[in-house]
Design a protein that fits this description.
Helix content is 42%, strand content 20%. With 131 residues, it is an alpha+beta fold.
């Protein structure tokens, strides 16, 4: 079993998709080992996304991630990082395969419903950030 971090972002939370996304996760064989809902502070959002601090979209990302609650989950499954990324779909919902979370619940490249760790190393860092 491996772990990964999954976030249900403010756009999906505001639209009431939390339960549907959680169901998709469990229906795809993941165990939700830990979870909580937080309204991220600016400091938390800036810290979590610090890798993007020099990019032009950073301020907009922080503003978005602090706009409403985020649901945070530690997921367990064999090959959890790649399996979660496959279930999420492409970053841009318009390019995501049918049936993926972003295709079903995302709006655009910024408001794409979910976040997932991109490597086992980052999964450990991201999980430790929140749990």
């Amino acid at each position: 079993m491996n772990n990964t971090l999954a976030l249900i972002k403010p756009d999906a939370m505001q639209k009431g998709f939390k339960d549907e996304i959680r169901k998709d996760i469990m229906d795809n064989g993941f165990i939700i080992a830990e979870e909580k809902t937080l309204h991220l502070s600016v400091e938390q959002a800036e810290g979590f996304y610090s890798i993007h601090k020099d990019k032009p979209f950073f301020e907009e990302l922080v503003e978005f991630m602090t706009s409403s609650e985020t649901h945070i989950m530690k997921l367990e499954k064999a090959n959890a990082v790649s399996e979660w990324r496959n279930l999420m779909g492409a970053t841009n919902p318009a390019e995501a395969d049918a049936g993926t979370i972003r295709a079903k619940y995302g709006t655009d490249i910024s408001m794409n419903a979910t976040h997932g760790s991109d490597s086992n190393e980052n999964a450990e860092i991201e999980i430790n950030f929140f749990f």
